[in-house]
Structures are given as C-alpha cells and as structure tokens.
Amino acid sequence: MKLSFYGADRCVTGSCHCLEVAGKKILIDCGLQQGRDEIDNGALPFQPGMIDYVLVTHAHIDHSGRLPLLIRQGFRGRILATRLTAQLMEIMLLDSAHIQESDAMWLNRKGQRAGKREVEPLYTVADAMQVKEYLYTCEYGEEVALCDGVKAVFTDAGHLLGSASITLTLTEGDVTKTIVFSGDIGNMRQPIIRDPVLLHRADYVVMESTYGDREHNEVPSYTEGLAAVIDETLGKGGNVVIPSFAVGRTQELLYFIREIKEKGMVHSVPNFPVYIDSPLAREATEVFSGDLRGYLDEEAIALVQSGVNMFTFPGLMMTSTSEESKALNMDMTPKVIISASGMCDAGRIRHHLKHNLWRSECTICFVGYQAQGSLGARLLDGVDKVRLFGEEIAVHARIVKFEGMSSHADLSNLVEWIGAFAPRPEHVFVVHGDADVAPVFAQNLKDRGYPVHAPEYTEVYDLAENRMISAGYTPERKKTVPADKGSAAYQRLENVGLLLQEVIRHNKGGTNKDLGKFADQIRALIEKWDR
Fold first, then answer.
1. C-alpha dist (Å) from residue 129 to 93, 133, 272, 466
2. Model pLDDT for residues 409-446, shown as the tens digit of each residue
3. Above 60 in pLDDT, residue 188?
4. Disulfide check for 70: which of 75, 128, 265, 513 has CB 3.0–4.6 Å away?
5. pLDDT single digits (tens) 158-172
6. Residue 35 has what pLDDT?
7. pLDDT (tens digit per residue) in 451-506
8. What is the enclosing helix (H) or strand (E) of 349?
C-alpha cells in the first residue's frame, strides 16, 4: 500500500499522485506542468501502460492536462470524474492540444531557419479526442467500487464546477486505510458554486497549499470594486483588459457584470460593451449554462428558477475568429475585454496587452493567481516595460488586482478545512504549493500538532506502516541541453552562464521582490539575445 508523488510537489502545477494497492496502480490527477514548474512534460516518471485507473479532481489543465499524453504512451485503463468535470475537461483538453500543435508548428518554423531538428507536439487534437473513450462519470456522494479493495467517493471541493475532493477506502490483506485527496480547495462565498464540503475522517490526507502562507484581502463587494474600475477607466476613454482563466473565472466575471449592469453601477458609459475573446471561454460558458443540478449554490439556484440567465446581459459579445479578436484593438470605443490566458503567458490576451499596456487611460485588471515567473506576475511586480511579439512595450496602463477574487482557499480556510478531521489523520502530505510556500504551511500545521510534511518529487510512502520508503528530490526546473563547443568567445559565454547559475543558487531564500527583479533582468537579456 504505497503512495508516490509525481507532480505538484513543492510547486503548484502538474498534480499527479500514484497509489499502489491490491495489485492496482491508481493515479489521482495527471496534470500539465506550467510556467517555471515545468521540468519535461513529456517524460512521465512511471509506465503509462501499468496504470489501471485515473481519478480526476477537476478539469483545470494543471490537474488533467497530461491525460492525452498518458493515452498516447500506452494507458488503457479507466478515467473517473464527476459529470461536470468530464464536460469541461473535454473542451479544455482539445484547447490544450490545439496549443501544443500550434506551439510545435511555431518552433519548427523557427527551427528550420536554424537547421534544428523538428519537434513534435506533446500531444495532438486526435490524442485529446481519445480521452472520452476511457472516461466514465459519477456524481457527488456516490460510492464507486473501482476494484476489489478500493472504493472512491467524490465530494464537492468548491473550487470549480464539478471539482472534488476524493476519499478512497483501501483494503489490502487485513489492513484498511482511508486517504483523502483534497484537490484544489475552493474559496468561501464564491458565486455560482457551493462552499467546500468539510470532511471528517481519514487516516491520511493529501492537501493543497497554494495560498498556505497568506490570507486573501477582504473585498466588501466584488461588484462595487469592479464597477468602480470599469466606470473610471471607460470614463477616461480607455479599455479594461482582464486576463482571465477561461473556465470558472470568466463565468464569475459575467455573473458580476450582469449584476453591475442590472443595478446601473457604471455611469460614464452605462451601456458599455463587454467582449469575451476566448473560444474556450465561450464553450465553457455553454457548459455553465447547461444542466447544473447538484452543483449550484442556493443563490444561483434561485436565479435559475426565476428564469434569469446568470451569464447573459445587454452588450455582451463573444468573438470567434482571430480576425474578430484583432478588430477589437482597431476599434477605439471604450470597452471591457476578457481574454485568456489568465497568467498572460499564451493566447489572445498577449495581443490585447500589446495594444493597451502603453495607454495610460487603460486598466489591466488581474482576477486570479499569477505563478512566479509568468508575465502576469511581472506586471503585478511593477515592471516598466515588457517584450511582446518581438517589440518592447512600455507599461503605462493602470495595473490592479482583486486580491480576494480567488478560487483557492486562503491560509485560514485551509486550516479550517484540515481542522474538520476528527480524530486527526495519522499523517498529512502538503502539496500544490510553491517551494517557498508548501514547507511553510507544513510547518504551520506541525506547530498545531499535526504529523505532516511537504513531500518532494518521486517520494514514496508506505501507508500501511506510516513511514517513508524512499525520499524524493527537488528537480532543477527548465533544464536546457548544452550546445556544442564553439569558438573561444562562445566557450567564455558558456562559462559565464554557469557562473550565473551559481549566483542564482546563492540567492535562494532572498525576498520575492529582489528575486523577481533579478528574474526580470535575466529575462530582459534572454529576450534581447534570443533571436
């Protein structure tokens, strides 16, 4: 009865854990690594053909994004998720596959000019379409017998429509243990979806820690704050550009803006237009407008029963083609543009930033988590210029962030969630938190009397005997392949590069502000010379 840690261990993305019990191997999530967390998404640390089941906590790509790769490399088992997770996951994986193919095409066009070997996408649209052949669904509270000795129950985690914490009852020989995988624990009082359901009994708990070192700032009213930003910006003739995750966050924004318009809270341009510039967001909104029985909070249920469409209002327009997207930046009418990706590292949002960042009358409004190293995080850190599509863009727009608008629980709510278990678990594993967050949260719980630690990548733990079998390690991120030796000048450059790596290591433990500034300086050099 073993638990192995294969992703989101002292980092936030790439969630993947593996249970070995009763002769079966069960993955909990198989997520894509993103941003600085990425090691090598294509190198799975296990044999896909040996996996019997995959349980998916929710549809976000950092929890589901490597399922097509898993199948491509030989997985032939069964995938289990809630009904809404299955619907959202289908469109998100197709979108991810399209990005993989597009990125590979771009790299190959660039590589051909340099004589480089052609690269293949991580997986294709055809691979993503195969996922549904292995997928079956359940509802919250339904006990599913996966196989002899393993039962699973999905419980609402309050993070995204369909998101779940998963309780597994494991029996091997005369030993029975219960383990809970928290998935992503939702923030309290979010619109549309319910608050996380508290669980009470488990021998082991694997829990997330995204905001395990801080609290969300109190926001008296999202609608009032957002309305004020829109009113002021549009009154100056600017655009409000909102980088937003296409699934979940975009629908929340539509919910708030519908209320803002109904109450007439924007006076400068009362009938302001709102554009959803994301094909994925458009498709996700259709899922959010479908059969949501068993998934909505009471306020949302009341709205639906009264005949109100939660995500539609006058002035809302959905763009489809890239031509329609480009046209938004040629039209000088003040508007709200909601576009993906939420961290600004890909997608149409980068075009909107290029055309709006330099305009002092515009506002860039962040409404979600920004991973360290992402363009969104750099803008929030206060950089005065960025490079987009080979062009240096000055940052004159107002940059704002709604701190409390998060789909993740903050420190207090994480402590409340784990505190509901009585008696306390035999051990708690803290995952899904940055390298400078997960250990801090683990220490916080240890100070409260919990047996706990933050596992490292590839650690293996014996659940029957409650002991570590083998320690993991913290891999270096974003490894690069050394180039062939060239001229003396080039070798000198390589030596300086090695020295830079040493300097980076020596700065481990510095303040986020200093490290962010250092990273921006290095990135500026990269953008200058990567041509």
1. 8, 8, 38, 40
2. 999 999 999 999 999 999 999 999 999 999 999 999 99
3. yes
4. 75
5. 999 999 999 999 999
6. 63
7. 999 999 999 999 999 999 999 988 876 543 333 444 555 555 665 675 576 567 65
8. helix 349-356
**Four-point Cα dihedral 521, 524, 526, 529, nearest 10:** -130
Which structure tokens are listed for 494?
Answer: 């390589």
Model pLDDT, residue 509: 65
DSSP 361-407: T-EEEE-S---TTSHHHHHHTT-SEEEETTEEEE--SEEEE-TT--S
Cα gap 81→59, rounded to integer Å: 9
Query: What's the whole-number average pLDDT of the chain?
Result: 88
pLDDT value of residue 138: 96
Cβ pair 115, 88 in contact under 8 A:
no
Instruction: Give me the sheet containing 336-339, strands edge to edge.
Output: 316-318, 274-277, 336-339, 240-243, 363-366, 398-401
Q: Quickly state the pLDDT bin for 311 (edges 50, 70, 90).
A: confident
Q: Which long-range contacts (CB under 8 A, 24 or more apart) does 16-22 make?
A: 16/66, 17/181, 17/206, 17/431, 18/46, 18/51, 19/168, 19/170, 19/179, 21/149, 21/150, 21/170, 21/172, 22/147, 22/148, 22/149, 22/150, 22/170, 22/171, 22/172
The DSSP-derived string for 420-446 is T-SSPPSEEEEESS-TTTHHHHHHHHH
Residue whose entry in the numeric block shows the structure tokens 């997928």:
135
Cα–chain center distance at 278: 17
Cβ-based neighbour number of residue 38 at 10 Å: 15
pLDDT at 494: 61
pLDDT in tens, 116-129: 888 889 999 999 99
Burial label, 461 (beta-carbon count in 10 A; 0-12, 13-18, 19+):
buried
Q: In this structure, what token pair is assigned to residue 311?
A: 């995500």
Has residue 23 got a pLDDT over 90? yes
Return d(Cα 500, Cα 7) in angstroms, integer. Answer: 27
DSSP H helical ranges for 154-248: 222-235
| Residues 500, 522: Cα–Cα separation, whole Å | 10
Query: Are 409 and 420 contacting, i.e. CB atoms less than 8 angstroms apart?
Result: no
Q: Is there a contact between 457 and 473 (Cβ–Cβ < 8 Å)?
A: yes
Strand duo 17-21 + 2-5: pairing? antiparallel
Task: Tell me if 335 sits within 8 A of 275, measured CB to CB.
Answer: yes
- Cβ neighbours of 490 (radius 10 Å): 12
Q: Residue 516 has which token pair?
A: 């962010």
Give the tokens for residue 365.
Answer: 């409004």
- Of residues 360, 417, 430, 459, the one with CA closest to residue 155: 417
Beta strands at 240-243 and 336-339: parallel, antiparallel or unpaired: parallel
0.70 exceeded by pTM: yes
Distances (CA, A) of 433 to 176, 203, 491: 29, 22, 38
